Amino acid sequence: MTAIVLGDALGPRARRRVRIITVISAVLVAAVVGVVMARLATHEQLTAAKWRPLTQWTVVKFLLVGLGQTVKAAAAGMVLATVVGVAMALGRLAPRAPVRWVAGAYVEFFRAIPLLLLIFFAGFALPKYGIHLSPFESVVAALVVYNGAVLGEIFRAGVLSLDRGQSEAAYALGMTYWQTMFLVVIPQAARRMVPAIVSQLVTLLKDTSLGLVVSYDELLRRAENTGEYYRNPLQSIVAAAVLYIAVNFTLSRIARRLEVRQRRRYKATALSVAGVEDLTAVAVAADAQDAR
Amino acid sequence: MGLVLDNLSLYGEGLRTTVALTLLSFVAAFAIGVVIAAFRVSPVPPLRAVGTAYVETIRNTPLPVLLVLFFFGFPKIGIRYSTFASAVIVLSVYTGAFIAETVRSGINTVAAGQGEAARAIGLTFPQTLSLVVLPQALRSVVAPIGNLFIALTKNSSVAFLISTLELTGVAERLTTQSARPVAAFVGAGAAYLLLTIPAGLAFGALERRVAVKR
Which chain B residues are closer than 8 Å to A273 by Cβ? Predict the structure, then answer.
């Protein structure tokens, strides 16, 4: 382990101090783990009866099908939201002002609203107007409306990040606006957006669990059901969390790797979109690497 | 819009709860974030491991899962809080992980010479971090932290899952009561905009004020 701390190697005294603090903090961490375990044990949460259901194939399969439903809603939401996002980005960049206003209003309004409110609206308000959506459709509809706005901003940022010379050169060759967009600008911008899109997919996967309010049969709901049936809510929800972490961690890693590779290849800066938590962390981390 | 005007006091109450949830959680999340970021850049391996484990676990778990775990799972081991307190704790823990990542990347933007100079004049690691590096790091991440604040405002709606009457809860109540609920929905949306737009402007102004000129 290299001991480089904020840009400098440690001297002998500092190394001694670090060793002492290492021991103390390791003891503290062990103590915290011990207290948690003792707490679990005294409340009889470590007994085999509480955990055994989670090793049975029927329960595992029940949860995995839930994960499949989660992925299904996220994937459907992502694909459709991409279509809406492209339309909104083109709208906000359009040469005609009224088109820009409409797209701008859509993006600014739906980006500012909690997704939960949209899911709730799709599930419980639309039926009052005669529109009955299944739980799956409600979740996907809300994901599309919300992420259409977010992806619209990502796409717009991607297009704007491209050097102006590219579109100027295309116009100089006599291309029309749409030819320039589809043949020159979008193919290049799309590459830059890949990492941002993958991290948005992680957000979508996490957001699917809000489908709870319209009883969409996904992983979190199934974990709750398991917990009620076997009287082990703590263990069942922890199991669901582990599944979410496994999938999302893998996706986050892929996003980060794409980001790093891209920056090496195109020297492009990461995209940052207001109000999107996952993206900002990725973007700033990447900028930080640039500054080094 | 009559629906919204008739229930203005209900909206006011929801707005107050959302603001309280957001502000309390933000203060706690900021403290958690700075401490975890300090852990992650510290020379002590166990602390670094704790920081990394915290960020990777929390960031990859959906917020509703954390809330359900805390509110329905933790009472089984004798940890029980009111709905409002539970929401604040879970939102703080969740947002803290994102703030930690942002602050850490801010720390990485501070030139290495700053840390070296601090060490050369004999400052210890905690002194280097708190007196030299963090003040510069935090300035560079005002905008991303502003984004996290706006995301937190929206995320506070999960408190509705454990029936806290905040803005989304108000919209839910009016939706079930009324025959034409679009107004209830638009009213809640406008109330969220009322919070996020000034927040965005305030963080923008703060950023311009403290920006490091390089």
Answer: 147
